[in-house]
Design brief:
- The chain is an alpha+beta fold and 194 residues long.
- It is built from 7 helices and 9 strands; from the N terminus they run βαββαββααββαββαα.
- The chain has 2 domains: 94 residues, Alpha-Beta Plaits (2-Layer Sandwich); 66 residues, ACT-like. Chain A, domain 2 (Alpha-Beta Plaits).
- The chain is elongated.
């Protein structure tokens, strides 16, 4: 059964990595609902947060494929119950509507929105919350002449995670990787004839 998953990827910040990761999703015909990149708690390590709606089996497979990418250090996938997440939304509405209708002002306060810009012709409000919260306010403001709307990608923290720096310490304390064996000698045509 499909459900919403958040994939968290820790990477080195390399040119072209985002494209390689996006190709993995397109090959499997998986639509990315939300994509965010940012620095992580570890200097030099970046964090991708990708939201998809898919089956657990497919999410597990794509996470394994992502980890095979050269610059990817670790990929995690979590359901919404396993993360804390928020999105930022901006709403532009006509200032005269806000001034005339106190009901709108009460709605904005009820949703924890705050004015970011107030001009004669429009006012911009911002709010943070989960998708359902920002969508509800979007629907309400639509009836009051909403001019423009934009929502950010998801930012998420895994509830039970102790941070990626601990995972790096585990890597450093682990056993060193064994050296690969010498390549096998492939006989030349002359050696085969002899």
């Amino acid at each position: 059964m499909k459900q919403e998953y958040t994939i968290t990827i820790y990477t080195e910040n390399q040119v072209g990595l985002l494209n390689r990761i996006a190709i993995l999703f397109s090959r499997r015909k998986i639509n990315i609902e939300s994509l965010n990149t940012s620095p992580s708690e570890v200097e030099g390590i970046h964090r991708f947060t990708i939201v998809i709606n898919e089956t657990e089996d497919n999410v597990r497979k794509i996470a394994r494929q992502i980890e095979k990418q050269v610059d990817v250090l670790k990929a995690y996938f979590n359901t919404n119950d396993e993360i804390i997440w928020q999105e930022l939304a901006l709403y532009k509405v006509p200032t005269d509507t806000i001034a005339e209708k106190a009901k709108v002002e009460r709605l904005l306060r009820a949703y924890g929105a705050r004015a970011v810009v107030i001009r004669k012709d429009y006012t911009i409000f911002e709010t943070t919350g989960q998708r359902e919260e920002t969508d509800t306010l979007l629907n309400v403001l639509g009836s009051f002449g909403l001019i423009e709307f934009v929502r950010s990608a998801r930012v998420a923290i895994i509830r039970e995670s102790k941070g990626f720096h601990e995972k790096l310490m585990e890597f450093e304390q682990g056993e060193p990787v064994q050296k690969s064996l010498d390549t096998e000698h492939i006989p030349t045509e002359e050696e085969l004839i002899d």
